Amino acid sequence: MFDVLRKSLKTGCLTEKLPVRDEAVSKAGTACQKEIARVFGKSMAVRMVDAGSCNGCELEMHAVNNGFYDIERFGIHFVASPRHADMLLVTGPVSRHMQAALKRTYDATPSPKLVIAMGDCAACGGEFGVSYASCGAVSNVIPVDAVVPGCPPTPLQLLEGILTALRRR
Amino acid sequence: MNKIVNQGQLEAPTVDALVDLLNRSGVPTTDVTEIKGRARTVAIESKLWGKAAAVASRHHVRWSAVWGEHRPPEIYVTAALAGVNGHLLLRTTVPDVGGELPSQTPYYPAANRPERYLHDMFGVRRFTDQPDVFLDERRWMRHQAWKADQHPLLKSFPVAGKPLDETPPDCEYVFVPAEGEGVYEIPVGPVHAGIIEPGHFRFNAMGEDILSLEQHLGYVHKGIEKLAEGRDVHGLARLAARVSGDSTVAHSWAACQACENAADVTVPKRGLAIRAILAERERIANHLGDIGACCNDVGFPFALVQFGRLRELWQRQNATVFGHRFMMDVVTPGGVTRDISPEHVTLLRDGIAQLRRELDELLPLLFEYPSLQDRLRTTGILSLETARRIGAVGYVARASGECWDLRRDAPYAPYDKVTVKVPHSVEGDVAGRVHVRGEEIYVSLDLLDSFLLQLPTGAIKTDFHPVKAACSGIGLVEGWRGEIVSYVALDAHGKVSRYFPRDPSWLTWPALEALIGGVIVPDFPLCNKSVNGSYSGHDL
Ligand code: SF4
Questions:
Q1: What's the CATH code of the domain at B437?
Q2: Which of A108, A123, B161, B523 has the highest local Cβ count within 10 Å?
Q3: Among B172, B191, B208, which residue terminates a domain?
Q4: Residue A45 belongs to domain with CATH number
Q5: Chain A contacts of B195, Cβ < 8 Å?
Q6: Do A54 and B536 count as a contact with CB atoms less than 8 A apart?
Q7: Do the domain assignments include residue A5?
């Protein structure tokens, strides 16, 4: 118990100690916070849908929740159900086997909703494109408000992508 | 922990001894030299396909993979079997119309899903002459995107397929029903609650206890094998890097190794050393992330924060030195695309020393924290016997005492010049899997140090010269999840005619089904995380 506390104290607050790059994170994050206040009120709930990704994009989604980026401090949090979500964050080319599930998730999300296609696959089909097994870009299946290119997009690119989507509202 | 050394695989014969055993047991073999690489290939008659498996399984040989290749008018079927010192590839042919094979599943449960997949993709039907064996006739990868009589990996099937505008959801898949008073079903997925890939889990539960779990995967099937056809080796490497994003290095390495073996391309020593550095860094990143996540699943967020921090720092160093946080596309046919400068060697070694210091402080803390261990110990036990029966690999097998590791058993360069320690546990529970992964980080750190200290001089890659005739090769790489088998066939123009990557998840997903009986429902995410099968790597 004491060891845990000691290590926690020694580690300190990661979100303050960050080098140069992190200024970009706080800037984008704070801007997001403002836009969220305008569009949704105080905070924004995100439901992620992996519609066929290689799992690379998901790993960076986990990363935006780590101590360095801590996306929750900007009022953005991930939720379990689309019914609680303001935004869908969709990854992957949409596999045909996920097409119905993605549509249903979209329908289950209350309006006003935002949809972001994260990663090259979601943006344009990426390395996989359209085939017998894949519908390609997310926009081939549901309306998309913004795309975040990258394979996978870095945590900062993801945050900036969310900001772009919010600004369009 | 680590008291009893129980290395089941040592009972398996060598590859050559296995061939002798087959010949002596009424399965005549003919050597085939077509598939290049570190495995021996023998052809057998198709009607002896099941018998060969029966002989092998009696001698503790591990079943590893099966795949097809359409060369009209035949389907070439190859199965990989693992002996104590590497792989034997069994090969046979069946007609591409109405082809059928005796099933290997009665002797190797691990073959069950791959054989169903073989049927979905090639139309090769399996049967058994064992009267007391029930063979699962259900499809495995196919949902509703193509019809039962269509088989996407036949050459006559166009890559575009004939999809409907809207592929209906796969509601008709029949799960094994639950019966009995108070037994109820819990359907979960494909869209899960967390940040995780999609799949469907069907639980039968009674009260809090899970009686059984059945997985229904295939949701992220995006046609990787079909898409590979017609690409050049560089295009193939890009695709291989995206088979499973968390294993991008391991899959690219396996695919490139297969291409290089096929075309007889020798990667310079420095290129190989850098590949191993990338692979060990990938192993560490994933172990760090999962150790934190497992602890978080039982309400110990301290570990998530601390290990998330270490993982982030590690990935940032990847970006600095290799230009990408996951080191994607750094492994390329013929070598690697990024060299390591002397300054970066120092930077990486500092990072290694720092991580070691942090782990010295953090891991004992986790391993000795009573309320954490209380939740991890005896949860989700996979016994040695079960691990062996279902043919598990990677840390899932090693945590149950079954110690396969290609880096030691059948080392490929540069692992042939170093000693690879293989940590294991005998408990087979979540704590064991977490512990083994912690220990593996240390092994990888030592390996990284030695590779960086003895980085060979010279080129990092060689040109991948154009091939002159059709050729094929096998790639065998120990990824962080376990053994990856990758098969590549190139045509006379150097274009891919077949790519098959066998992610270790094929052999660990069944472990999750096997270890979940009796676990309480709220502990499922923990058990799932402790196994961490790849959906994408499996679904292809
Ligand atoms: S964009 Fe890249 S990382 Fe994301 S799912 Fe596609 S291949 Fe994977």
A1: 1.10.645.10
A2: A123
A3: B172
A4: 3.40.50.12280
A5: 48, 58, 61-62, 65, 78
A6: yes
A7: no
Q: Does B436 touch chain A (CB under 8 A)?
A: no
CA–CA separation, B55 vs B61, rounded Å? 9
Specify if B384 maps to a domain: no
Secondary structure class of B222 (helix, strand, coil):
coil
- Phi and psi, residue B87, nearest 5°: -110, 145
Q: Read off the DSSP letter of residue B209.
A: E
In chain A, residues 15-44 whose CB comes closer than 8 Å to chain B: none
For residue B99, the CA-to-ligand 1 centroid distance in Å is 37
Q: What domain range includes position A68? A: 22-167
Residue B539 lies in a domain: no
- pLDDT > 50? residue A18: no
Expressed in angstroms, the distance from the first to the final Cα of chain B is 37
Measured CA distances, B287 to A125, B43, B69, B347, B425 (Å): 30, 39, 35, 21, 16
């003895």: which residue's tokens? B454
Residue A18: count other Cβ atoms within 10 Å of its Cβ. 15
CB contacts of B246 in chain A (<8 Å) are: 55-56, 59
Q: Is B306 within 8 Å of chain A by CB?
A: yes
Q: From its phi and psi, is residue A115 left (phi > 0), alpha (psi between -120 and 50) or beta? A: beta
Kindly indicate the confidence band of residue B132, based on its pLDDT and cuts at 50, 70 and 90: confident
Q: If you measure from the C-alpha of residue B243 to the centroid of ligand 1, how many angstroms do you get, rounded to a whole number?
A: 10
Q: Which residues pair with B196 in a beta bridge?
A: none
Q: Return the pLDDT at A41.
A: 84
Task: Give the pLDDT confidence score for residue B129 in this predicted structure.
Answer: 80
For B358, the domain range is 224-378+431-504
For residue B216, being part of any structural domain is answered with no
In this prediction, residue B5 has a pLDDT band, given cuts at 50, 70 and 90, of very low
- pLDDT tens sequence across B296-353: 999 899 999 999 999 999 999 999 999 999 999 999 999 999 999 999 999 999 999 9
| Positions of E strands within A35-113 | 44-50, 76-78, 87-91
What ipTM was estimated for this complex? Answer: 0.92
| pLDDT at residue B130, rounded to an integer | 83
> Cβ of A63 and B315 within 8 Å?
yes
Report the atom number in ligand 1 closest to the C-alpha of A92.
5
Q: B7 pLDDT exceeds 60?
A: no
Q: How is chain A split among helix, strand and coil, in percent rounded to 5? A: 45, 15, 35
Ligand 1 pocket test target in A151, A157, A158 with most atoms within 8 Å of CB: A151
Mean pLDDT, rounded, for B106-116: 95
Mutate to test the interface with B, among A11, A15, A73, A97 (most CBs of B within 10 A): A97
Half-sphere exposure for A108 (CA within 13 Å, toward CB): 16
Q: Which two tokens stand for residue B185?
A: 């079903």
**Residues B151-165: pLDDT tens digits?**
999 999 999 998 998
The pairing of beta strand B471-478 with beta strand B35-36: parallel
pLDDT at B413 over 60: yes
Sheet of strand A87-91: strand arrangement: A76-78, A44-50, A87-91, A114-118, A146-148
Q: What angle do CA A45, B193, B481 make, to 5 degrees?
A: 125
Q: Are residues B58 and B133 in the same domain?
A: yes
The number of C-beta contacts closer than 8 angstroms across A and B is: 171
B143, B160, B194: residue with CB nearest A131? B160
At residue B9 the predicted structure's pLDDT band, cuts being 50, 70 and 90, is low
State which H helix or E strand residue A148 sits in: strand A146-148
Q: Which residues in chain B have their CB less than 8 angstroms from residue A9's CB?
A: none
Number of domains, chain A = 1
At B451-463, the pLDDT tens digits run 999 999 999 999 9
CB atoms under 10 Å from CB of B49, counted, come to 22
Predicted confidence at residue A6, as pLDDT, reads 78
